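Q: Predict the bound structure with FE2/S2 (inorganic) cluster.
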Amino acid sequence: MELISNAPTGPIEQSWDKHKFDLKLINPANKRKYNIIVVGSGLAGGAAAASLGELGYNVQCFCYQDSPRRAHSIAAQGGINAAKNYHNDGDSIYRLFYDTVKGGDFRSREANVYRLAQVSVNIIDQCVAQGVPFAREYGGLLDNRSFGGAQVSRTFYARGQTGQQLLLGAYQALERQIGLGAVKMHPRMDMLDLIVVDGQARGIVTRSLYDGKIEVHMADAVILATGGYANVFYLSTNAKGCNATAIWRAYKRGALFANPCFTQIHPTCIPVAGEYQSKLTLMSESLRNDGRIWVPKQPGDKRAPGSIPESERDYYLERRYPSFGNLVPRDIASRAAKAECDAGRGVGETGLGVYLDLADSIQRLGKRTIAERYGNLIEMYERITGEDPYKVPMRIYPASHYVMGGLWVDYNLMSTIPGLFVLGEANFSDHGANRLGASALMQGLADGYFIIPYAIGDYLATAKPAQVAVDAPAAKEAVANATAITKKLLNANGNRTVDSFHRELGKIVWDNCGMARNEAGLKKALAQIPALREDFWKNVRVLGANEEFNQSLERAGRVADFFELAELMCLDALDRRESCGGHFREEYQTPEGEALRDDANYSYVAAWEYQGQDRAPALTKEPLTFNYVKPSQRSYK
Amino acid sequence: MKLTLHVWRQKNAQDTGGMVRYDVPNVNEHMSFLEMLDVLNESLIEKGQDPIAFDHDCREGICGMCGMMINGKAHGGFPGTTVCQVHMRHFKDGDVIYLEPWRAKAFPVIKDLAVNRASFDRIIAAGGFISVPTGSAPDGNAIPIRKQDADLAMDAAACIGCGACVAACPNAAAALFVGAKISHLGHLPQGKVERDRRALAMVQQMNIEGFANCTNIGECEAACPKDIKLEVIARTNRDYIKAAFTERPDSTSAGAG
Ligand SMILES: Cc1cc2nc3c(=O)[nH]c(=O)nc-3n(C[C@H](O)[C@H](O)[C@H](O)COP(=O)(O)OP(=O)(O)OC[C@H]3O[C@@H](n4cnc5c(N)ncnc54)[C@H](O)[C@@H]3O)c2cc1C
Ligand code: FES
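A: Predicted complex:
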């Protein structure tokens, strides 16, 4: 298969405007003749459904939670980037573009990233108009903070609840369209399959989580905005329900999956406390603005942090990266923490932790200012650990958090299946091999508010999808497939719970395809995962029936997909014999232990095509060229 | 520690339901409350018994998906805490714990501890928004907003829509939920334009959904995991009364705008 990115050529500053002008339009009266399915109600899906409803399309929106307001975007804490340069500190669209391409370790498409930086400014305007209560300065203007990988202050925030406020903005816009009858919302619905008719995406199969009813929904185009798959690691900062099912089943219908091994490990999470742990909690990276990260210089130093004098502490990020200090990008901060712990300098009971210390900032700015900036995070930390960060430094450790990989899309956010668009974290996105903090919210809203409304019109006007019936053979076949999977899970009647399998899978992936990877480990995982998967299908125990509210069954289907995805991740990681961003192959590093890219051989997007069960997927490469930001070794020293 | 749980089990909306007793040995103080339920559920599945259904997602106190009555208190009654953020160190060996779903006419039980809160969404759909089409916004700094107003808006906007206020209220009123949205938007210049019609439409929908009237008992404020203050209800009342006098009837229809 050949991958055509449809990225415009010519001066990058003008390419989106020109492209927009070239896209075909649908006249207002005709829009309501088109049905569009949006799966997902997070920032990407919520914004898309609201905007498309507003334009006059007939929209159906789906989510698995009981309300669209609960999508996982709600949990984002730190902020959202935008190149507003309100602070006159040298920011610009070009600088945000530059930082994002560099932060992504030169594995993203330049034209997409430039567009993202361009529309970032409209996002803030839109959100303010919707009533998002961003933090303000005393003069009444918008306040900003800094995030990792940037030397300017361009992050807008609403206390430690930025994602919540942005999502409520999108949710309210969506509810308004629901009230007006332009959007029909289907909460507590799982998408289980994609319906492809004559090569075009024409619908989905869903299972109602209330009563197990399987339904077919047909449309002229399908948008997936179903979020990321970080839960493949079992323990992650994602909500418990986050899953890969929608994109995975689309992959099995022919959509190519790009860079599955590009996952992000977030440096500042609360360390694991025990075997029963069900998820990990993120402490926003914004804390790195005012928190200093350190470990005792002496390995095995078990003294309480307060009794370790300044001279015996190692502020290792400040030491190793003097110009960015505690604000180096996430992949670098995570690996540095791992290196300290591997060398025996980790803190806390397990030794898998480093200190994040607010003491200096409290002294400099006062407790009140710190409380104003991070109050809710500090409370959350205290609630979970029972320790007070105003008095003792927080303990943090990296955790799986975000995925840069996802379904491959062209410049119009369309996958390799015509009519199937993918937005937000679910696509392989604009973040290359590493995403900068506060850029996922930006991307989700850019995709949903400002890109898909243009792209979808062009597709519908060009492809002119024909009528199809809900009982088309492809729809029947997809229903049969979804039903068969559910039946198989219920009939296995084995002796192990879904969670116990998920936990074991997560450990394999974390150990071998996590913060650091190597050939031997990946090969081991590629042997272990299929074996465990086979055991899963034989020995999993899912009680109850399909025709009821059955949470074990919901989870079982998701875990089944994680098994297959985990294998593809390891395969991709094995194939990419270089280190870049979040993908750190131990064999490929500089003498100082930094990621060593191989631009001559790996400057491409790896897109995988499903070839059938038990057959190796086929790899197609989309070459990446850099006309503006010249690839160099990232330096944050 | 060892705990005894009495849990409301109800197969579906039609079932009458009742309390069932479970003994939970080996509870670790570092577990979260939901992790304790996970461990119990795992053991139930191993014994071939139907696990307890309860809603949850983020487990960080922000999505508003979780919620149950613990010993008669919404989310367990720990200040500013959702049940997913409650940790077992607050309990001791031998404790007996009663778990029940939110109880309100407008929140029918789906199964066990999970309820249907779609009524909240319909209240927002009626008027809990600012009508601003995508792409039509002026620059974000065009209208300065006093920090104090932005902060007050944010205090109210912190509502997670979990329904604890309704569950805690002896009348099962939704006044705190509605007030939080009215306050959030009403404190901002952008939200002031539609203030009257918003109050009328949301209050009207609240009544249609079967939420009872607020009689100023204040249990909702005490139960709110996000510390939403009672003053938001006073604001709804002010806006509603003013609107009832000034607003023309055609603009009160749900979702107008
Ligand atoms: C704890 C945490 C903090 C973060 N903080 C920040 C931050 O400060 N700044 C930043 O920029 N980014 C942050 N991120 C990342 C960012 O929040 C996410 O990448 C982004 O919100 C994803 O948005 P989305 O719309 O793509 O997906 P989501 O918000 O995850 O939405 C997915 C939607 O799809 C639905 N769905 C999923 N699967 C199915 C299915 N099979 N069937 C039907 N519906 C389905 C869900 O119900 C949901 O509505 C953070 C992430 C985490 C985990
Ligand atoms: S699970 Fe999200 S608030 Fe409790």
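A: Confidence is low (pLDDT under 50) at residues 251-257 of chain B.
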